[in-house]
Write a structure and sequence with these properties.
6-stranded parallel sheet, elongated, homodimer, alpha/beta, DNA-binding, 46% helix, Rossmann fold, 6-stranded mixed sheet
DNA sequence: GCTCACTACCCAATCGTTTGGGTAGTGAGG
DNA sequence: CCTCACTACCCAAACGATTGGGTAGTGAGC
């Protein structure tokens, strides 16, 4: 590419070199239909472009956005990037933003409303063109404020009624798991439901419960345990489920792979062999699921695409379009952790049906 | 905070409102020793600051950096953010940058030299003040180019001789594992070594081999298998190791937790019980290690701190200081996957000693 | 009464682009 | 020959902040 640091050569330099006015150069290099029209003679335009390429001219985005009031910057706020799910979504964002010539800031809020606010202010003070919010809380009061302040934004990962969002169809995902576990003969199930303020966990749980009940099953409130989304959260939740004396479920649905992995750990320490004594199904089908010593059944959510769609939606908003929320379809991946026909055969299934 | 979108009120507005000159306001709000000195009367300063707070003034960073030639922006390039190790390091960066009033761009290079270059150019065209490079390849020709172009940068995660870096002491980490496995009685070990262009894997492998040999052990070249850093990479590598007919090691050191998890999966499908038939040790002690059905021994590396240190180093460079590379100390965490005294008792150890 | 040193400000140029509005020069049409 | 419509440019004012260099006004010192 260039052998010099960008910024060393300006529009003015180019103009001087060619004996043109900076504005002419600007129109040639950055104009649209302008160029074809009255901007410059084709031969001049050629000269300009050649020189620009030769000296490695790249426009100063600071100067440009000072003038245009557009930074071509998007802000992304996630609970934590060390959550693989959000990291993958961000990869999708990174890609799509890049394709559209935008750059992104991403910051962690740790799901703390104070930090959320602070990071948002930082992004706005950086003059981002819009925000992608991946850590929306169901009470969502910040969002109203953003709307009032006319900040363009969309939600990702978690959804909230009334705002545009890019998510997985979590309700459907939950339903798929319910159907699967029911088909496998499970009648007594528990749910590790995630944080109550996150639509992901809430919707997955709701989808599961609705379908399970529609099939004729029962799920008492006590079978739903709220938890953090990480491994320790899942471990703790599963522990409390398995410790319960009056009933011990034959299957656990964790709304997140990491919680599921934690649950596997807990099952282990209770002397239960996952996939034989206890079925566990996770959500998101992260790259780990299939590789675990006992492969984890999981609902594959198109995380990467969710990130891409979020960018598309936001660009739509910036463009003044009326955008609609997008719910991408999940797919259930059944593996050893919940496939009772796998080695135990039919007897296990019937045994479980009691 | 403010109830209006940042950017709506400028320095000029403040000045007009107060009957002062913009430059005076600027000096009051952003000056250092200036303020105390001849900038303005204390009472005026007070008035300015009050109004600024009241109307929610926040300086336009684009305008500022256009003038100052400093963006307070740092660029971070990592192989992939969906690698938990890099994600955690980035969290450290995010924090430390925030503390120092910097913002960061982070981009994925997928360890592809072409993308690496492209992302770098994007960051430079955004006029970042400096770069943190988390995906350096040992052949490192881009780095020389950066040096030549006088771009301030530091390395993180991976190190390369001659450049400032923030890393874990990988050589020591490898040595710790060698010592541990030796103490456990293992004499026949294999290494899943990661990508040959990454110093992390190379140094961990080298540290391991050196110590193991110093203790009197032997490690043939064939016992070292290069691989990708993810679970599938580990799976494939372990598979080829375990498939080997002439020797089957009693222990495997994977230079990365994810590779180790993949190796566990492979061991499983070879009918080996990890922790009894085969010891496996990983690296980084990611949050998963301790939660796995069979808890994974791993070398804890201070990933979060590595990110923080990287920022500190880079700020040092920006400040014109001569900075030194920092190697943070690793700690070995022994768990079930390699603790033979755990349940099998002494017999297993001696059996393995042959 | 004059100089000197402050104090408390103001002025204007500048950073690199963009953009609405000119304006010389040319050729065609009447 | 004059007008008109182009073509191919140029001019200058922004955008919002920073910064080196003024300069009135005041009080002290001699």
């Amino acid at each position: 590419m260039t052998d010099i640091r960008p910024g060393s050569v300006t529009l003015k330099d180019l103009a001087a070199e060619l004996g043109l006015h900076p504005s002419t150069v600007s129109r040639i290099l950055h104009g649209k239909a302008d160029t074809a029209r009255g901007a410059a003679a084709p031969v001049t335009a050629e000269r300009v472009r050649d020189l620009a390429k030769k000296v490695g001219y790249s426009p100063d985005p600071q100067a440009t956005s000072l003038r245009t009031r557009r930074t071509h910057l998007l802000g992304v706020i996630v609970p934590r990037l060390s959550d693989l799910v959000l990291a993958v979504m961000y990869e999708g964002i990174d890609e799509a933003a890049d394709d559209a010539n935008y750059s992104t800031f991403v910051m962690n809020s740790r799901d703390d409303t104070l930090i959320q606010r602070r990071k948002m202010e930082i992004m706005l003070s950086r003059r981002v063109d819009g925000l992608i919010i991946g850590d929306a809380h169901l009470d969502g009061n910040i969002l109203d404020e953003l709307t009032e302040r006319k900040v363009p934004f969309v939600l990702m990962n978690r959804t909230i009624a009334g705002f545009a969002s890019a998510t997985c169809d979590d309700t459907l995902g939950g339903a798929l798991v319910a159907q699967h576990l029911w088909d496998q003969g499970h009648r007594d199930v528990s749910i590790i439901a995630g944080e109550p303020y996150a639509s992901t966990g809430v919707d997955r749980t709701h989808g599961f419960v609705s379908r399970f009940r529609a099939l004729g099953g029962t799920i008492p409130e006590s079978a739903i345990v709220w938890s953090r989304f990480d491994t320790t959260g899942g471990h703790t939740a599963a522990d409390s489920i398995l410790r319960g004396t009056h009933r011990r479920p034959s299957a656990i649905f964790a709304v997140n792979d990491f919680a599921a992995i934690g649950a596997m750990g807990a099952a282990n320490s209770h002397g239960l062999h996952v996939g034989r004594d206890l079925a566990i199904v996770g959500f998101n089908d992260t790259s780990l699921a299939a590789q675990l010593p006992i492969a984890l059944s999981s609902v594959r959510s198109p995380m990467h695409d969710i990130g891409r769609v979020a960018v598309k939606l936001l660009l739509g908003v910036l463009n003044g379009d009326a955008v609609e929320s997008v719910k991408l379809a999940p797919v259930l991946c059944v593996r050893d952790s919940s496939d009772f026909t796998w080695e135990a055969g039919q007897e296990a299934v019937t045994a479980r049906q009691r």
